[in-house]
Write a structure and sequence with these properties.
The chain is an alpha+beta fold and about 130 residues long. It contains seven helices and three strands. The chain has a three-stranded mixed β-sheet with strand order 1-3-2. The longest helix is centred in the last third of the chain and has 19 residues. The two termini are about 20 Å apart.
Length: about 130
């Protein structure tokens, strides 16, 4: 069932997915790193209390809204969107599925960057 590709191909698909995001959203991503990892770290799994295989992506950092407040002090470190390669591959049957899952995961995590909750994302069909 899992559709696996090499790391370079996966990262290329992540880049393609980012290019498909409307420019008005991409232009608002300030100081955000996109990092591909095979699986979430043990610390993340422990903190979230979930299985290593459940998480497809994760946003870590200050939301866009939080950065635009009076007390929103810019960080020297980027906010980060993690994309978990092996978990996305595990639920993909072919390249088309893989591309769709990557794009959906990126949209979901960008939604968190813009301050949307899991419930908000589900209402908008991004989750």
């Amino acid at each position: 069932m899992a559709y696996m590709v090499d790391r370079n191909r996966f990262e290329s698909l992540v880049e393609e997915a980012l290019k498909s995001i409307p420019p008005e959203f991409i232009s608002e991503l300030k100081n955000v790193a996109i990092i591909v990892e095979d699986y979430p770290s043990d610390d993340i799994i422990k903190t979230m209390g979930i299985s290593r295989h459940q998480l497809l992506g994760l946003f870590v950092g200050q939301t866009h809204e939080g950065q635009n407040t009076f007390f929103g002090v810019p960080s020297a470190y980027p906010d980060t969107i993690y994309i978990y390669k092996r978990n996305i591959e595990a639920i993909s049957r072919n390249e088309e599925d893989l591309i769709e899952e990557i794009r959906a995961t990126i949209l979901h995590e960008i939604g968190h960057y813009f301050g949307l909750s899991e419930e908000d994302l589900k209402k908008r069909y991004i989750g």
